[in-house]
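Re: weekly structure request thread

Next one in the queue (351 aa):
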Amino acid sequence: MKETTLVVDPGFVHHRKIEAILGQTGTEIINQQIAEIPLRTPDWRVEVLTDQIYSKIILDFCGVNEIKTLQQILLDECGQLFCSIVDVLPCEEIYDFNRVVANCKGIEGIDYKVELHITSGRFRSETLKSCLYRGGDFAVVAQYYTRDDKTLVFHPLLIGFPYLADVETGDLLWKKYTDFYQVHLEDFKEFEIVKQYPLPSSIEKMKFIRESVFKQCLGKILTESTPKDWGGESSDFFTSHLHIRESRLSAAFLLKGPAKYSPMTPKHLGKNGDQIIRLSKEPANVLVIQHCHDILPTVIETLKVFATQPSNPRHYCIIDGRESLRMLEAFNLVDWAIEESANLDQEKNLA
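Done, posted below.
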């Protein structure tokens, strides 16, 4: 499996603000790298390389200091800096004024409106400018500036295009970053047998399988221990024994059983979606959400944002009720899981 990383092609870089965030040590690192640019490099190329240096250093800073995503700042209602892939609405004024406001797409369940206040004269890339005019997904590092009731204003330090690149060569790949980082259950070598089974037409059986029993099923399949939940864990199940092609990966699972047997919305994930926040803090290569029912797009989008943070990109996987049942059928665990769940329910009733 080719080693791939998420990189940002910067089109807006605010040098002064980045230096203010990085401080003297970070600025010295930037200056050292700029000094290594060959003297005969054309001026236009020096500008491009300089922006790339600033971009890389601020992203490294965000990774080392675990800077939050925009969603996490909004959920936590605190934080001065965010680093995220942001869905920005069309900014049709970008060619008309020197100072413009780009609005970020609203997030379900969050009342705050987010504005990016941008000096259009700082754009290095006309391509980025035209894309912001139309709107879309952009890699953004921005600093909190002020609040006006439910409107939060941020000043961008970096705006760019998220791309995939080969770690060894640095060559950009054609595959879209979201397609690369989203994986499916059958992509893992340990679960590839599920491809031989059709998706069930009904998820009714999942109503009778407890979350703790589904966790035991994962343990049986992967020959992993399944300690009982204790309330302070960041994930429900963790393994370091998954493989995609030849690469070994670790994965953190957030599991949801039939206690709330309905399509998963952000409300299933704790107050302010804090369970996804905790999941994202796990030192895992893959973040997985599993549910006994359907998983709605708002949950998938939220997981994608946390997983594809530019400073710490990771794979993410969604296992809904149909995928869950297909997995159990593939490993001949459906009847056992239903029976074991019934036994646990009976023990609970007798207690």
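The first strand starts at residue 4 and ends at 13. The radius of gyration is 23 Å.
Next request, please.
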